[in-house]
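Help needed: design a sequence for this.
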């Protein structure tokens, strides 16, 4: 593992966030909900789900995720600038964070894909009587919000870990 590979891994996470994650929670899931609620969501369910979607798209969480990529890049840049050619534990620290992000990103995509497949399958199976399956659709949307929440928790933990790595590089 080299600093170059690490830089590419950081860029990959940043692209994942920018081109997959953000559009999914800002556009795709809300649009799917809009279609779903036309099947008969009452006002209470609409309010509950809209609140969940607002929480999913909270600026604090999105900003924290964007900051994580920058923190990792800053840490790597500092490390490379201070490098004396010897092995440094800080570099392995950064790799741990990036490896965790890789796992989080892949798990998020796999789980969201599974939930989307469940929704499409449910719709195709019950086409003309899909309104009888409304509670199952609601559960899928609850699952979406749970997946996003778990992702944010992982990002938050990674952000804390990355900051401690940046602090240790700054001390050397």
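Sure. Designed sequence:
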């Amino acid at each position: 593992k080299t600093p170059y590979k690490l830089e590419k891994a950081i860029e990959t996470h940043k692209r994942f966030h920018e081109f997959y994650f953000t559009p999914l929670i800002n556009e795709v899931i809300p649009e799917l909900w809009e279609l779903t609620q036309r099947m008969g969501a009452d006002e209470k369910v609409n309010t509950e789900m809209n609140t969940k979607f607002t929480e999913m798209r909270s600026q604090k969480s999105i900003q924290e995720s964007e900051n994580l990529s920058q923190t990792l890049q800053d840490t790597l840049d500092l490390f490379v600038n201070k490098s004396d050619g010897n092995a440094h534990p800080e570099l392995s620290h950064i790799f741990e964070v990036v490896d965790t992000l890789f796992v989080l990103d892949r798990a998020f995509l796999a789980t969201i894909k599974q939930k989307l497949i469940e929704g499409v399958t449910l719709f195709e199976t019950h086409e003309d009587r899909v309104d009888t399956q409304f509670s199952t659709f609601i559960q899928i949307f609850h699952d979406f919000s749970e997946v996003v929440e778990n992702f944010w928790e992982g990002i938050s933990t990674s952000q804390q870990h990355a900051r401690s790595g940046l602090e240790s590089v700054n001390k050397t």
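DSSP finds five helices and no strands in the chain.
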